[in-house]
């Protein structure tokens, strides 16, 4: 099928999302990751919009990439100024970037309310700007802003705008659903019309109706040969079309070989890499790459997947670098417990394990997100569990002073190998103080425990009708730098629940290496 060009706008459009920020060095790392993935074009931003962008373009000019081309972003010339005298176009022309993406107006509403030019002057701004950059040796991508709103308001004029860009030498004319206001059927109708006017067009969608990916695919079906999006769909308002999902759909469902099999296998890694740089927790339910995108909980589903994965999965997760997981819960069957135990090299009575899980989940535990605690449960059932220590007592003191400052102190008393350890530590809260005191004692014997990091802490009230007296569930995620595991605690006292989860997290770190992951 026709080769589809992948165009990533994470570094420019994606950064317009709330809370999205990367340093210039981090942006360079993202470009290298996208290059490894096989993305064709990366929109780096405005070359001189601010000092950070200027620094980024200086850094990128010195980098070497195996595949990706850098696109500098800008706008058509200003009204009343010739293209060769426009400062913005001059910056684009002087940039090292081989590709220049310029955005121009298409919708009469914007001509009247924003740029305040006539329809004919706008056509001249489009054509002259494209022609100037082409004459400077640039490949030009023209973004027709608000194209679909414009098409619905005045079809003929919208088509004249894209025709003007192509006539002036634009390599690709991109139809932008800037407000994210269109449905797939509307995108398809307009795109089919454009296909009769221009030779090469692309699609750029926002996700305000949660149709960004569907709209992109609808345009591809009508002949679009460039797809624009951002990693994990980040962007202004509700975000942009998710390029991760677009790639997965193009490659595995529509027959477009946009990546090699090896590159497709990096899809999950790339998606998570960008989220981690942005200090975002990856969406566990994100299609293709989410942690639970190929997770199975119900006993019938698990049995079906074990017999033939295609019964409850649309593809092999390994193809996109993800993995199948079987979630343990009261809905799980004995086969799930047996498989988990087998992966650890343990022999257990699977039926008894599931009965124990059902009993605990009735009390508020939830093991599907607490794989570390479940591993300990399996080891107890297999008779190979050894506690890390014997608890004598723990105590927390939280004090608020008259000046408003809050201080927390924790004392733990434990026994390890017949020796008593008493430790006191301060922290920025009870859990932090307990963690510090406990690890202060244990790291004398197990020094590697000091390298563990608590990366997530969640508290949930299980019966909100009881208010502050309700049972609470605490979930902790812990990392040793390579692996991440969850642990759980349940108690009417939130500190006691936290202590239980904390102990499980450390005990899981002490267990023998698993036979296979």
UniProtKB/TrEMBL annotation:
Its EC number is 2.3.3.21. GO terms for molecular function: (R)-citramalate synthase activity; 2-isopropylmalate synthase activity. The keyword Amino-acid biosynthesis applies. Pathway: Amino-acid biosynthesis; L-isoleucine biosynthesis; 2-oxobutanoate from pyruvate: step 1/3. The keyword Kinase does not apply. Signal peptide: none annotated. It comes from the Bacteria. Pfam families: HCS_D2, HMGL-like, LeuA_dimer. It catalyses: pyruvate + acetyl-CoA + H2O = (3R)-citramalate + CoA + H(+). Keywords: Acyltransferase, Amino-acid biosynthesis, Branched-chain amino acid biosynthesis, Isoleucine biosynthesis, Transferase. This is Citramalate synthase. The gene is cimA.
């Amino acid at each position: 099928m026709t080769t589809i060009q992948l165009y990533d706008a994470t570094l420019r459009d994606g950064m317009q999302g709330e809370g999205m920020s990367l340093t210039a060095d981090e942006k360079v790392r993202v470009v290298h990751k996208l290059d490894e993935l096989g993305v064709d074009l990366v929109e780096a931003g405005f070359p001189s919009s601010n000092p950070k962008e200027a620094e980024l373009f200086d850094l990128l000019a010195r980098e070497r990439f195996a595949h990706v081309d850098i696109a500098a972003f800008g706008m058509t010339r200003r009204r009343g100024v010739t293209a060769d005298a426009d400062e913005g176009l001059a910056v684009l022309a002087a940039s090292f970037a081989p590709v220049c993406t310029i955005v121009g107006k298409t919708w009469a509403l914007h001509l009247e309310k924003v740029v305040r030019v006539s329809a004919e002057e706008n056509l001249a701004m489009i054509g002259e700007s494209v022609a100037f950059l082409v004459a400077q040796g640039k490949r030009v991508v023209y973004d027709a802003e608000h194209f679909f709103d414009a098409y619905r308001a005045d079809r003929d004029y919208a088509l004249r705008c894209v025709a003007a860009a192509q006539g002036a030498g634009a390599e690709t004319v991109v139809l932008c659903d800037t407000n994210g206001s269109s449905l797939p059927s509307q995108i398809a109708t307009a795109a089919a019309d454009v296909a009769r006017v221009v030779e090469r067009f692309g699609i750029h969608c926002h996700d305000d109706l949660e149709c960004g990916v569907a709209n992109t695919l609808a345009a591809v079906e009508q002949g679009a040969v460039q797809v624009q999006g951002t990693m994990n769909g980040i962007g202004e308002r509700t975000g942009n079309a998710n390029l991760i999902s677009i790639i997965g759909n193009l490659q595995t469902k529509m027959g477009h070989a946009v990546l090699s099999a090896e590159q497709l296998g990096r899809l999950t890694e790339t998606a998570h890499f960008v989220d981690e740089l942005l200090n975002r927790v990856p969406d566990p339910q994100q299609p293709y790459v989410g942690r639970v995108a190929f997770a199975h909980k119900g006993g019938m589903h698990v049995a079906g997947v074990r017999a033939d994965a295609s019964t409850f999965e649309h593809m092999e997760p390994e193809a996109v670098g993800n993995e199948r997981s079987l979630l343990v819960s009261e809905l799980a069957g004995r086969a799930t417990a047996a498989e988990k135990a087998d992966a650890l090299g343990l022999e257990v009575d699977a039926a008894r394990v599931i009965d124990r899980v059902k009993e605990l989940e009735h009390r508020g535990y939830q093991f599907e997100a607490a794989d570390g605690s479940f591993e300990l449960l399996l080891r107890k059932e297999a008779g190979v569990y050894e506690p890390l220590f014997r608890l004598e007592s723990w105590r927390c003191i939280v004090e608020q002073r008259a000046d408003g400052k809050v201080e927390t102190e924790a004392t733990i008393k434990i026994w390890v190998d017949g020796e008593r350890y008493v430790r006191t530590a301060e922290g920025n809260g009870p859990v932090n103080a307990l963690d510090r005191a406990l690890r202060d004692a244990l790291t004398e014997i197990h020094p590697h425990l000091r390298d563990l990091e608590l990366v997530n802490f969640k508290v949930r009230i299980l019966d909100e009708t009881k208010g502050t007296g309700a049972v609470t569930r605490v979930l902790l995620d812990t990392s040793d730098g390579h692996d991440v595991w969850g642990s759980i605690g349940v108690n009417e006292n939130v500190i006691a629940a936290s202590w239980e989860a904390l102990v499980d997290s450390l005990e899981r770190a002490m267990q023998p290496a698993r036979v296979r992951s």
